[in-house]
Amino acid sequence: MELLTPELGLFVWTLVAFLAVFFILRKFAWGPIMTALTERETGIAASIAAADRVRKEMSQMQSENEKLMMQAREESSAMLKEAKETRDRIVAEAKDLAKIEANKIIADAQLQIQQQKMAAITEVKNEIGKLAVDVAEKVLRTQLSTADAQNHYASLLAEEVKLN
């Protein structure tokens, strides 16, 4: 059992050595260690605070990003709607202009057809008139080729004039 019970001399020297190391460490090491621990604690607290601040800023930026994305989507849909309306308006205007132009072309064509028809009718009437005069001339020449026929025709004309 002697091994388990310490001797008094060993106990005292161990205690003196412990106290000497304790006071030396307290005098030279304890201050810097505590300063380093305090600095580390302050740095960790600052890092945690900075991380919280960054997380809040990121959350705020994310919500701002979402708002900006919503605005961009709304603007793009508004621009698409406006572009569609403009396209439809331009197409409608083009159709209207095409209809107006087509109606104008048709009216001009009908006018030209009417003018050509009237010219053709006039020409046909003139030809008929010429033919009638030619036929009448030939008939009259044939009927009035002799002097007796001329006298007889003159007397007929004279009777018609007296009757009217």
Structural description of this entry:
There is one protein chain. With 164 residues, the protein is mainly alpha-helical. The protein contains two helices and no strands. It starts with 7 loop residues before the first helix and ends with a helix. The mean pLDDT is 89.
Give the helix/strand layout:
Elements: H1 8-143, H2 147-163
Features:
mainly alpha; 164 residues
Described by its quaternary structure, the protein is single chain
**Rg from Cα:** 65 Å
List low-confidence stretches: none
Largest sheet: none
The helix count comes to: 2
**Beta strand count:** 0
How would you summarize this macromolecular structure in one to three sentences?
The protein has 164 residues and is mainly α.
